[in-house]
Design a protein that fits this description.
5-stranded mixed β-sheet; 152 residues; elongated
Length: 152
């Protein structure tokens, strides 16, 4: 009976037996894994504390008005906001059922670039109840602008 699985012609085996080598390597690997120190150090990070009094919701459930001023401010229901807050307010209003009405009223000398950017933000947000208000001030040419002889 030949246990070596090789030839039975009486020649010595020239192949190296790999099983003991693999066993020793596995034992060494397990020993190294066990002896690795557990990460006991920690990185201290100062996280912001939650505000116990969250700010009141700026979104009115009935209607909200966006006004663009001539000095470049965006007013949401008469409160100055930035574009990031505008996006958050639009997403909040869109999620309401029923969706509140959104009114857009730029002042006479408001920046056209700011108006275009705000209108694009509104369009991308997917708000459906949207309207322009305050246009009745400009029914006649020359009213409401700089150097206008008429009144507001």
């Amino acid at each position: 009976m030949g246990m070596s699985g090789g030839k039975l012609d009486g020649q010595p085996m020239t192949d190296m037996n790999m099983t003991p080598l693999i066993d020793v390597l596995l034992v060494l690997l397990i020993m190294f894994i066990i002896t690795i120190p557990v990460a006991t150090h920690a990185v201290a990070i100062d996280l912001p504390q939650p505000n116990p009094n969250p700010p009141p919701d700026m979104v009115d459930p009935i209607k909200n008005k966006i006004v663009l001023t001539q000095d470049g401010q965006i007013l949401w229901n008469a409160e100055s906001i930035d574009q990031g807050t505008l996006v958050a307010n639009l997403n909040t209003s869109k999620a309401m059922v029923p969706e509140p009405e959104l009114q857009f009223e730029p002042e006479a000398l408001a920046s056209y670039d700011l108006s275009a950017r705000v209108l694009n933000i509104i369009k991308v947000s997917g708000v459906t109840k949207f309207g322009f208000v305050g246009n009745e001030k400009y029914r006649q040419f020359g009213t409401g602008g700089p150097g206008a002889g008429g009144g507001n």
